[in-house]
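We store chain and fold; thus.
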Amino acid sequence: MSGLVAAGVLTAAGPAAADTAPQSQGGATATMGGLKTYGTAVVHDDGGDYQVSAGLFEMFVDGGGMLQTYCVDLHNPTQRDAKYHETPWSGSSLGTNKGAGKIRWILQHSYPQVNDLAALAAKAGVTNLTEQDAAAGTQVAIWRYSDGARVDALDPQAEKLADYLDKSARDLPEPAASLTLDPPAVSGHPGGRLGPVTVRTNASAVTVTPPADAAASGVRIVGKDGRPVTSATNGSQIFFDVPEEAPGDPDHGSGDAAGSAEVTVQASTTVPVGRVLTSDSRSQTQILAGSSESTVAATASATWAGGGAIPALSAAKDCVKGGVDITAANRGDEAFAFELMGVEHSIAAGASQRVLIPLQEDQAYDFTIKGPHGFGQRFTGVLDCRTQGGAGGTATQTLSEPSPATVGGTAGGTAGGTDLADTGGTSTTPVIAAFGLSLLVLGATALSIVRKKKAPAQD
């Protein structure tokens, strides 16, 4: 039997022993920008009342484009310039939130999706609704569902809008991802096609980029008919066509060659309203309220070998189950044996299995799964499944001032900058400097995970 070990290396930086698994399942990746359009809200909790800014954030998409988002994580700080990636609800606090569908309804029936403020005001029974009031009222209504918060808008117009949205909200289903590849990892023997990998997207078409070393390795990306593809559409199936003598691990002869390759697909599209954006640096979770035409991308990998176990590994955070779900497939001709969290697993040739790594809220993880032929896959991240004010959450971090340090303005106004889709822009809770992970190397053969305290520094 071919063996596999999980090496726990709980560090934020340093040389990787193996390829790092993509932290995103595909879609948009973006950087937190500045504060745009917002007002003030009053939060009521057991410690008393305090004021926070409430409204729209703006994010800048990698490769081009801008996103507007609201917060679904009231008590957690936002880190300046934090990196975010599109995430399914199951990988966020909305995965266990029965009100998630109502949040999506609010997004679709309020600002900025509804930018006719007169019409929105008429539905809410108010007059003279400003962009700031519309953004604040929408955010307040969202917080009531995302965090179960007792929160009101300070401005009476914004409060009436929040009440209207709160009472009118209906359940809607989770929106599909802007772009994913399914599955994100495949494996098999050289001398044939590995796959299929199915394209899932709301874009009209995606560009297919072959492996970087395709000319040297001879690996091609082809369709069902075996012909090379350079573009694809939703539902298209693509394959890795790996020649018999494809280069691989130099320690093995051509009869037992081992190697790997990646394909990237990219498109320009609008990201669906209601998609969640999360950050592995534990910055405040966001939900999409508006999108310009933006760049989205996804990557899939293939591994091959002439014999033995041939693993294909992928991972996804699962907030319903409370951990990281590892999918391990074995397309080799020997069983694939491994141990995780003290439990031994064995995947028969041609079979696949899901292995849940249970984690505590806010636990950082960094581990490498190693297999035959020099195979290694590294997975890193932080489990961030709860709002801090929710049941079982950690200590609440709140604002003590109505106008915390922000990017681009002060509470109650509109900061200067680029408007997004002619609607304005973004909002706030506290914006803080990024905090780093600094964790201890714990061992080379057992998966080790430690709880990480949040220690953000106020900007």
